[in-house]
Amino acid sequence: MTEGPLSGLRVLELADETGHFCGKLLGDLGADVVKIEPPGGELCRNIGPFLDDVPHPDRSLSFWYYNTSKRGIALDLKNADGRALFRRLAADADVVFETFRPGYLDSLGLGYESLRADNPALVLCALTPFGQTGPWRDYATTDLLHMAAGGEMASCGYDGSDVPIAPTGGHAWHMGCHYAYMAIMAALVYRSVSGQGQYVDASIHEACALTTESAIANYIYRGETLIRQTGRHHAPAPTMRTQFLAKDGVYVTALISGGLNPRNVAALADLMDAHGMAGDLKDSKYADPAVVAASTEHIVDGLLASFIASLPAEDVYHAGQQRGFTWGAVRAPEDLLEDGHLQDRGFWKTVEHPELGRHFVYPGEAAIYNGTPWAISRRAPLVGEHTADILCGELGLTQAALAALRESGAI
Amino acid sequence: MPPPRALENIRVVDFSWVRAGPWATRWLGAMGAEIVKIEWPDSERGRLPSSTTPQGMATTLNTSGNFADTNVNKKSLSLNVRSPKGLEIAKRLIAMSDVVIENFSSRVLRNWGLGYEELCKIKPDIVYVSMSGYGHTGRNHAYTTFGPVAQAVSGLTYQSGLPGQPPAGWGWSYMDDTGGMYGAMCVLTGLYRRNTTGQGQHIDQAQMISAVPLNGPALLDFTANGRRTRRPGFPPGNRAYWPGTPLANNFRGPTVAPHNAYRTHPLGYNDWCTIACPTDDEFARLAQVMGRDIPAEFATMSDRLAQQDALDAWVESWTTTLGKYDIVERLQAAGVRAMPVQSAEDRVENDPQLRHRGMYRPMEHPDLGVRKVQNAPFAMSATPVENTLPAPRIGEHTRDIVEGLLGYSHDDLRAGFDDGTFWPTKRPLFDYQQEMLA
Q1: Which residue of chain B comes nearest to A372, CA vs CA?
Q2: How many domains would you assign to chain B?
Q3: Under an 8 A CB cutoff, do A134 and B352 touch?
């Protein structure tokens, strides 16, 4: 079987909910990611939802999703034996990825300078809410708080309301992890040429602050503050609405690229006429840009809205796209299981959970790596699942030594 | 000697336009790759139309502020790839490069004669990253996207808003930014593999597709538990849970209250701060900073979850008396989680952390003057990540690349301007183009 593009790479992950997505990104592309958790399991195992709504550290669906393709060991870094074992693992690792508060690994004697002495090729990436320096360095956050400070909330909300809204789904963590992955891979590319490792200090706040498209440019080049609008772009002043309710109660995003003009009004007329819903749009008066401009409300809020209201959202989406309109149905996540295009691409993956005697469908890859497939190599590790495999199998500890470590609380 | 950069000696042929692709290559450039952006003024969609040209400045191909921020660290080659001569020149450049990246619809590059098989003939170990809307395979590969459409179709838009109201969605092309991230991630992963195995590959990245895995826990809640997000109380606005609806995790971490945005003094459009108290201890410290006793009805987490309207009103009666930065400083000093809602102006001018980290650093652009430019959200100890070139004016580096890199003569360059290879024959030249032909 062909392996992923990162096959052969060993990553040690010491990450909570802020960073475990980065380890998944590496692991699903073939890296051997060893997740090091405190005895009893990382606290983010307590975040729901849980399988069958039964809270348990091995039943968190959030943990399951973000920890695929990893092996897990329990190691107490507050314990001297735990630290010694970590050092041995780090001496042979390619990457250490950690999300502890700034300075914590250093305080344990396990900081980058110390680890590189045994392993000069090591790439150590620390991902933290604000980075390792600065006045907010030690502030505590949540996903919501990052969406506020990063600028996401200032751009999301409703027409005519000043309430800022943060999208759900943990996207502050996603943004931080995307950049952390980028930095780790750049360091590895450099190492593949130079043999030299390095330290990466990545900030979730900065990643979020970078992810609001033109908002910063609008301010820097024009001094503008943007308003929040329902289901569409922030803007310095109100723009045409783009979200319409379809017949089945599902919304459709129907933007008219470049605004209304005679050319796209004619195309719209053809599309709507095929469903007997063109109204007066076939009238030759719409060849005049001035008439189109003066009829925006009639065309958009009248005819287009009525056309969309006459069909189910998926029908509007496909009919529009097939005629060159960049439209989409506003789907709920569960609707995606029905999507033929995702099925054609083999997107959905079945993952075995042998201890439960069950298997579940997981979402697949963000991109197809032709020749080196993305794959979920295993479900998320149970608490301490691979401790013996790794400590005895790889580091050569005896069963008796393992038992002693267990007793002392090191593992 | 300046320190090395992570992607030193890597050359990227960049056919990408608008936002997602250029956002990817911007970062590769910041890490030291040489980015050759191939453009054609008649079919340009990233520079024009521009809504970010400074007031009082003529809107031209070279004055879009958003383009300028999105395209730092690149060189621009104006080239008509749809002419045989232009295609030949593009191939010569690809033969000397490591990466080809583009974000056209699924069949465009192949139709130009630059599909992956062709690219391999030119450069056997090329890393080719295509960044289309829906990918190069699958029944809807020809569909097109903008950020908002990818966000709608992939399930992201639906999960933002208030219960019983239309989706608030995302107020910008989140999937242009994030699609750009995936484009850069694919390039780096492909380069790492090439460097370690000698093999190139085609990586098929797509904006709509990359968005779907960002719904992981919500998708598993459906595939494992059968629970839909089309349910009362979802999405729960800024809260973790909407009172009066069935108690369920709403994919924003632990289910806790308070967890919301609160108005602050002086009640302007962006005068809000967010506060979240995941434990009884943090809630007690919040009350302490507020200088109030905890009302009996908010004693436990389940009380607070059930009575969030009253709880939020109680918190807001205090937050409206202070400015958002003041509140955040007081609460964080006491170990309570709080952050201001920040506009772009707040981030650039008022955020002490971003200032300390040097997030926005001035750079001079020949037409736009000295302006702040966004920097990388990470620091690398051995290989600095920094912006080194302002965004190129269109075709600004045509001579450098054609003569300096590809070895054509100056007469060849002039002939290419005369026959429409490097610039449309009827289109006036910018001053810097006149100069390069002198």
Answers
A1: B201
A2: 2
A3: yes
**B63 and B158: one domain?**
yes
Distance from CA of B170 to the nearest CA of A (A): 6
CATH number at residue B138: 3.40.50.10540
**Single residue among B343, B367, B386 that ends a domain in this structure:** B343
Buried b (16+ CB within 10 A) or exposed e, A145-163: bbbbbbbbbbbbbbbeeeb
Structure tokens belonging to residue B79: 């080239």
Query: Which of B281, B310, B343 is a domain's end point?
Result: B343
B261/B187 same-domain check: no
Q: What is the number of other CB atoms lying within 10 angstroms of the CB of residue B323?
A: 15
The answer to whether the CB of B278 falls within 8 A of the CB of A142 is yes
Query: What residues of chain A lie within 8 A of the CB of B199, using their CB?
Result: 371
- B20-34 pLDDT, tens per residue? 999 999 999 999 999
Task: Provide the sign of the torsion angle of the four alpha carbons A264, A269, A274, A275, taken in this order.
Answer: positive
Residues B185 and B136 in one domain: yes
Domain layout of chain A by residue ranges: 10-210+344-408, 243-336
Contact B6 A187 (CB under 8 A): yes
Structure tokens at A264: 């796209």
pLDDT score of B32: 98
Helices (H), A254-396: 262-273, 289-294, 296-297, 305-309, 313-322, 340-344, 387-388
> Which pLDDT belongs to residue A1?
53
- Choose from A61, A251, A315, A335 for mutation: most chain B CBs within 10 A: A61
- Contact between chains at B221 and A61 (C-beta distance less than 8 A): yes
Per-residue confidence (pLDDT) for residue A383, from 0 to 100:
97
For B203, the domain range is 11-213+358-437
pLDDT of B206 higher than 80: yes
Of B14, B98, B176, B204, the catalytic one is: B176
**Is residue B176 annotated as part of the catalytic site, yes or no?**
yes
Q: Which two tokens stand for residue B176?
A: 């242009």
Quick check: is B278 in a domain? Answer: yes
ipTM: 0.98
For the beta carbon of residue B325, count every other beta carbon within 10 angstroms. 16
Q: Tell me the average pLDDT across B295-300.
A: 97
Percentages helix, strand, coil for chain B, rounded to the nearest 5? 40, 15, 45
Six-digit token string for B56: 């009082």
Q: Are both B17 and B153 inside the same structural domain?
A: yes
Q: Which of B21, B173, B183, B22 is nearest to A212 (CA)?
A: B173
Q: Residue B371: list chain A partners with CB under 8 A.
A: 220-221
Quick check: is B76 in a domain? yes
**Kind plus residue range of the DSSP H or E element containing B198:** none
In a domain, residue B236? The reply is: no
Residues B330 and B191 in one domain: no
The residue of chain A nearest to residue B372, with distances taken between CA atoms, is: A220
* B182 to A158: CB separation less than 8 angstroms, yes or no: no
Blockwise average pLDDT, block size 10, chain A, 411 residues: 91 98 98 97 97 98 98 97 97 98 98 98 98 98 98 98 98 98 98 98 98 97 98 96 97 91 95 96 96 95 97 98 96 98 98 98 98 97 97 96 94 91
CA atoms of B307 and B257, how far apart (whole Å):
9
| Residue A214 with chain B: CB contacts under 8 Å | 51-52, 66, 172
Reference B399, options B411, B385, B391, B390; nearest CA is B411
In this structure, CATH architecture of domain A10-210+344-408: 3-Layer(aba) Sandwich (3.40)
What is the C-alpha separation between A139 and A149, in angstroms, rounded? Answer: 12
Q: At what angle do helices B20-30 and B174-197 cross, to 10 degrees?
A: 50
Distance from CA of A76 to the nearest CA of B (A): 24
Given the structure tokens 């190139």, which residue do they identify? B200
**Contact partners, residue A38, CB within 8 Å, separation at least 6:** A74, A75, A76, A77
